[in-house]
Amino acid sequence: MDGTVIGRLARRALVPVLCLAVGSYFLAHAFTGPSGVLALEGLRAERARLEAEQARLEAERDALAGRIALLDPSGADPDLADELVRRHLGVVRPDELVVPLPPAPADGGAGGVGEPSPGG
């Protein structure tokens, strides 16, 4: 008779134990998962970094929009157009003198124009 009583108790406890196990699994992931409570601070830091990057990119976009407005064919800024043509096409007028500059050093600017050379 003891076998049937224990068997009935085990069957009656099976569903609540399974529900408790499944609930514990989801509760543990709610705290420790990639978007859980413990990861919330990291997600907030990532959001702040992305918002700062967005602000920087918007400022850059606005600056580029200003330069694009200066290139409008109906009212192009002659100085900007001259600068762009000279820089990208290498155009020089006949009455101008070109002074070649040495290439910029790779170490961040040491030995540039106006600075004494390391050797003397």
Q: Which keywords apply here?
A:
120 residues, rod-shaped
Describe the secondary-structure layout.
Layout: H1 2-32, H2 40-70, H3 78-89
Account of the 3D structure:
The chain starts with a helix and ends in a 31-residue tail after the last helix. By secondary structure, it is mainly alpha-helical. The model has no long low-confidence stretch (mean pLDDT 80). The chain is rod-shaped, with a radius of gyration of 35 Å. It has helices at 2-32, 40-70, 78-89.
Termini distance?
Answer: 107 Å
pLDDT averaged residue by residue: 80
Q: Give the class from helix and strand content and strand pairing.
A: mainly alpha
Strand content: under 5%
Could you provide a short overview of the structure?
The chain has helices at 2-32, 40-70, 78-89. It is mainly alpha-helical and 120 residues long.
